[in-house]
């Protein structure tokens, strides 16, 4: 069931077995590490320069789809459309004001499920309300749950891709709408939505330098790793077991702003993963009573299209990970011990993008002209 990603270890983590004098051996290792570090840093610099010369809109192919919802649309109808179109988010538009009105994401659906589970008198009442609940009312739900409303971050399509990447990181967003303006009418026009996955795949498919990113994920500090506490052996990573209820995991999603929780056995071995997408299928089907199910039972209801758990080792290189993203759709990787399969950490696309763009110099102040090139990817 698991889709295991196995890349080579970093050259700096592979000690030589040749018997040579100690002093020479240490110098040789130091020189070797310095050379690999220089190669890695040079590749990273070239990737950042590439991001400065491309616009945010360059990431998109010549032909693509962009599903946009009016804020008056019922949530359930929007959710069914998202499912049929194979998307997990969509920009919102206020036709009365002719303005971009935010994003509909799986987090919104999680908040809605949480609200009705806690507030509704009966499941029948919740089911009836959700049938007519409109997108524009989601902000009321956020206020009831004391959840901050998402910021309306956006960027012009012609701005440098590096600038867009930095805004994604600074705003802690997984996606960034590209908004143009009609100077004559004052209307805001939604060109598309830039996602972390689409951006990283664009880098992987257009930057040959990724093959020189030899250093390991753990040594680069990419990801969140287990740092045990007396009361939590997997701190700071949220985890669950097969006996945890679906609603307990929903609470983790909402409280910690995460989209997936590793499912472990008693020994800490990763057995599966439960995602926001698994939960939102319940509201689409109207099966609200299943929030009390255990994860073990809920997983039997999961679609056969689920691709499996994608895992890696902390010793795998950044270059190999980007090659993997360029070839296969992935949104996170569970870091496991390659010998035991025990949970070591988790790597998100945000972790990877943050490393690639951090500490880079500023972008041009003049907007770039979109090129006619792009990669055929889907969000």
Automatic annotation (TrEMBL):
Gene3D superfamilies: CBS-domain (3.10.580.10)
Domain of life (superkingdom): Eukaryota
UniProt GO cellular component terms: cytoplasm; nucleotide-activated protein kinase complex; nucleus
Key words, A-Z: CBS domain, Repeat
Matching PROSITE patterns: CBS
SUPFAM superfamilies in the record: CBS-domain pair
InterPro entries: AMPK_gamma/SDS23_families, CBS_dom, CBS_dom_sf
GO molecular function: AMP binding; protein kinase binding; protein kinase regulator activity
Domain named CBS: residues: 59-121, 148-210, 231-289, 305-362
UniProt family annotation: Belongs to the 5'-AMP-activated protein kinase gamma subunit family.
Name of protein: CBS domain-containing protein
